[in-house]
Amino acid sequence: MNDDSSHNRIVILGSTGSIGTSCLEVVEGLGNNMEVLGLTAHTSWRDLAAQSRKYRPRWSVLSDERIRSRVETSEFGSDTELCFGTDAIEDVAAADEADVVICGIVGVAGLRGVSAAISAGKRVGIANKEPLVMAGGLMMKAAAEHGATIIPVDSEHSAIYQAMKSGHPSEVKRVVLTASGGPFRGWKREQLTDVTPEMALAHPTWDMGAKITIDSATLMNKALEIIEAKWLFGLSVDQIEVVIHPQSIIHSFVEFVDGSVIAQLSPPDMKLPIQYALTYPRRVSGVARKLDWSTGMNLQFDPPDLENFPGLQLGFEVAERGGTCGAVLNAANEGAVARFLAGDLRFSEIPRACRAILDAHNFDPDPTMTELLRQDGWAREEIQQWRS
Ligand SMILES: NC(=O)C1=CN([C@@H]2O[C@H](COP(=O)(O)OP(=O)(O)OC[C@H]3O[C@@H](n4cnc5c(N)ncnc54)[C@H](OP(=O)(O)O)[C@@H]3O)[C@@H](O)[C@H]2O)C=CC1
Ligand SMILES: CC(=O)[C@@H](O)[C@H](O)COP(=O)(O)O
Ligand SMILES: [Mn+2]
């Protein structure tokens, strides 16, 4: 971080998305303490232009080179240099002037930006879980080598990060990830066959981008989060549990060896974990919603339904096996979700297709990044052709 910890220059990867726009609200709430240095989007150039005029970053990046000829550069304001391409995302994420990088790109498309920020030794707030699922072991190793500080932004992992402060890492018995259960909590396998994208996009508690919202509905989001937790906190699979908590008020628990369970509570609003990553180790007043204790509240907990939501089981298995499994599961799931949203795959086929591709892949227990990228590409081709 900047020596003057009251003023920090921030880069937001994926600034036009759900995490990105929440992050800009947080930055605005923090006032003069934060300066927006860089923003990135893929194709939403008009949104990025509006953000650029408002926050006046030094750089704005559009990663999709194909839209270059359509973009009206004058819309970005005179203070901002507009750049194109994924190389430019890496340059901004690693810029000497950047103190903190918030990673809010969706999918493995965010890998190069996250990796660049880590290699440059930045403070890196990671919401973008898919690169961790794909290559978490290599990323944590790189962070240690380059002196980067990874602060989880995913709500469950932020909660665990905060709760871990109550004891020494060696005193942690297990972590419990909470899951809302999604829009189909309590549904049976037969009922899930004819679910439409519109139904699956109606998350009961969180307002998020389309891909993660579908993942929440299949419980694949929790599967990815098991793998994410393993890498972020150096846990074994038998130290990770999942509990269904429909209210999304408790964002996860840490149980210590003495039996004490420490939880983090707040309304379902990503502005809190984003702000925590920006101001850590300090806590400051901010724009995130607060709990209202003046009205009654019931907090419910149920065991997860692995039979009707088989995607969750994949998370435990993949975290256990490691190697190339995370890359393959993640890539198959990204492709399956895209096909489901395009009306080309049934909802109930998402976990089935992921299972089939995972089982068919050529397992490597200790892959390099090159091998992980190769397997990611292979799984993306497989999922395009998959038929039940
Ligand atoms: N939303 C949430 O509350 C939470 C999200 N997360 C994680 O955070 C990440 C972002 O999620 P969310 O904000 O919901 O996603 P959104 O779909 O809302 O936003 C995605 C962002 O990534 C950009 N983007 C999309 N494709 C590419 C690409 N190929 N290359 C570069 N940039 C790209 C988009 O730009 P453009 O607008 O131009 O398409 C946009 O800025 C995901 O990994 C998700 O799992 C984790 C916890 C909570
Ligand atoms: C906000 C956040 O972190 C999401 O990952 C959220 O947890 C999704 O809700 P589910 O618990 O339904 O997966
Ligand atoms: Mn989450």
TrEMBL record:
It comes from the Bacteria. InterPro entries: DXP_reductoisomerase, DXP_reductoisomerase_C, DXP_reductoisomerase_N, DXPR_C, DXPR_C_sf, NAD(P)-bd_dom_sf. NADPH binds at T16, G17, S18, I19, N128, E130, G209. It is an enzyme of class 1 (oxidoreductase). Residues 265-381 form the DXP reductoisomerase C-terminal domain. Its EC number is 1.1.1.267. Mn(2+) binds at D154, E156, E225. Residues 150-233 form the 1-deoxy-D-xylulose 5-phosphate reductoisomerase C-terminal domain. Pathway: Isoprenoid biosynthesis; isopentenyl diphosphate biosynthesis via DXP pathway; isopentenyl diphosphate from 1-deoxy-D-xylulose 5-phosphate: step 1/6. 1-deoxy-D-xylulose 5-phosphate binds at K129, S155, E156, S180, H203, S216, N221, K222, E225. It catalyses: 2-C-methyl-D-erythritol 4-phosphate + NADP(+) = 1-deoxy-D-xylulose 5-phosphate + NADPH + H(+). Keywords: Isomerase, Isoprene biosynthesis, Magnesium, Manganese, Metal-binding, NADP, Oxidoreductase. Its cofactor is Mg(2+); Mn(2+). Residues 10-136 form the 1-deoxy-D-xylulose 5-phosphate reductoisomerase N-terminal domain. GO terms for molecular function: 1-deoxy-D-xylulose-5-phosphate reductoisomerase activity; isomerase activity; manganese ion binding; NADPH binding. GO terms for biological process: isopentenyl diphosphate biosynthetic process, methylerythritol 4-phosphate pathway involved in terpenoid biosynthetic process. Belongs to the DXR family. Catalyzes the NADPH-dependent rearrangement and reduction of 1-deoxy-D-xylulose-5-phosphate (DXP) to 2-C-methyl-D-erythritol 4-phosphate (MEP). NCBIfam families: Dxr. This is 1-deoxy-D-xylulose 5-phosphate reductoisomerase. The gene is dxr.
